[in-house]
Amino acid sequence: MRDLVGHDRHPASFLVYLWLIAEQRRRGAEVQIGYQDLAENIGISKSSAQAGVAWLLCRKVLVVGKTSVTATPRYTVQTPWKGKTSAAL
Question: What stretch of H or E contains 65?
Fold first, then answer.
């Protein structure tokens, strides 16, 4: 994950990832949260949270699901370096 900050130069993505994985482990399930709430919890701007989520989706370490187009997204953090059982916490 240090690639997000060092190589990719997306520190907001790293913060989003850390917060989402901690919250997912705390809840024991996927995290349903809007961009504004995510940004406020992390302490970054809404646009930085959006960019962070977009970059994590490109890197395939985050999966997003919605029940409808306007629904609040549900995020599932992936840890592909741990193997195929990484989706289960």
Answer: strand 62-65
